[in-house]
Amino acid sequence: MLKELRLYKFPLLFAVLSIAFYINFGYGLERSDFIKLISIYTALFFTAYLLIEKTIPKPRDNFWFLAGLGIVFRFVFIPAIPNLSQDFYRFLWDGRLLIQGVSPYLFTPSSSTALGVTIEQSQQLIEGMGALNASHFSNYPPINQLFFAIAALFAGKSILGSVVVLRVLIILADVGILYFGKKLLEKLNLPIKNIFWYFLNPFIIIELTGNLHFEGVMLFFFVWALYLLFKGKWFWAAILIGISVSVKLIPFLFLPLLFRYFTNQSNVAAIKRLIGFYTITGITILVTFLPFLSSEFIENFSATISLWFQNFEFNASVYYIIRWIGFQVVGWNIIGTTGKILPVLVLLLVLAIAFFRKNKTPQELMTGMLFVVSIYFLLSTTVHPWYIATPLLLSVFTKYKFPIVWSFMVMLSYSAYGENGFDEKLWLVAMEYIVVIGVAIWEIFVPTNLKPARF
User: Fold this and answer.
1) CA dihedral defined by 91, 94, 97, 98, rounded to 10 degrees?
2) What does the radius of gyration of the chain's CA atoms come to, in whole angstroms?
3) Which of 54, 118, 173, 234 could tie 217 with a disulfide, CB 3.0–4.6 Å?
4) Contact (CB, 8 A) for 284 and 251
5) Which of 388, 383, 239 is nearest to 313 (CA)?
6) pLDDT tens, position by position, 243-260
7) pLDDT, tens digit, 9 for 90 and up, residues 167-216
8) Could you tell me which of 411, 394, 403 has the C-alpha nearest to residue 43?
9) How would you write 108-131 as a 3-class SS string?
10) In 10 A of CB 143, how many CB atoms?
11) SS3 for 421?
């Protein structure tokens, strides 16, 4: 026992320090205090690096030690109200609306007087989500809405109670990612410790468990689907990918890449499997949306989605360069035009990767997915920190580490939220993307024999 304690004295020390940092982050931090935020986050990232890469005596034999730490770190946030994002107020609003039989896609919170139903703590929820959020229709897909409704069902009269329910669901999803992620790494003959760059990453713990973003739930269904797909169970994989899309729309981007994976053998049976896969995925998505389908839903949902491309701008990279050029050339913000062109460019690049790149093996496929989602975010007008969860998890199953760097650098975007309101620091945005793109270029183009050993 004493020998074991001596072996684990440094991991246990870093674990205790991490718990203290997480407590401070979750209960003693205001979003406007950027210096404190980035200082604690840097310390957490460093301790996570030490736990994953340096201090465990026998990493292969200590999977459950690290897994236990990840769960304990998440439990720190159980009774905490999210302090970096107010989106959860909208989640609670939508869920409480849904369990009363009212579609959250047909009414905005700011028009709540026309609902004809009573929403518990409605004023507090509307004030919490903010005027901008309250003025738009919901853009969260149906399976995501189901989780909001579960929170309303079990704790519909308590904001904190609803937060706890959502947080437990997100933690369970992360545990599922840990389980299937480990199995995928074993199948790909990659180091098992890679999954802890997701599960122990303070970015994931803070943004998903802490701030209640549902990227982790989407990724759980998606990783489960990939595991089944690589085992040849494409029917169930298609259903799970459809469910994943109905949590968050991001997996839509990956569907074209499956063309080369399925047609690897170039025979009639492979084409039939591909058609069957796409058909089952499409039917699954349709079934989840079916209870809400109407002309009003289609109009409201599509209009809300388009806002992200043509109206909102935050932590962008390529778009900010285009915006600056627009100001120099025409004298005003050209987001309305650029927001229509960039999605088309993304689509063309996705199709190019899908049809002209080898995506025939599991690792080639997942690397292609990593490139696709990274390009998508680099060309987006809005990149909130929690979006990076998707490239981060995909990178675990590839040789690329730039999303891990991104999961650290993206926190610089919180510098925009100061005591005097929103003021984005473009020099910090530039620093974020220069570092991330620089690391990506290094990993992609520099020959392996010129690189130092990977951490």
Assistant:
1) -100
2) 22
3) 173
4) no
5) 383
6) 999 999 999 999 999 998
7) 999 999 999 999 999 999 999 999 999 999 999 999 999 999 999 999 99
8) 411
9) CHHHHHHCCCCCCCHHHHHHHHCH
10) 22
11) strand
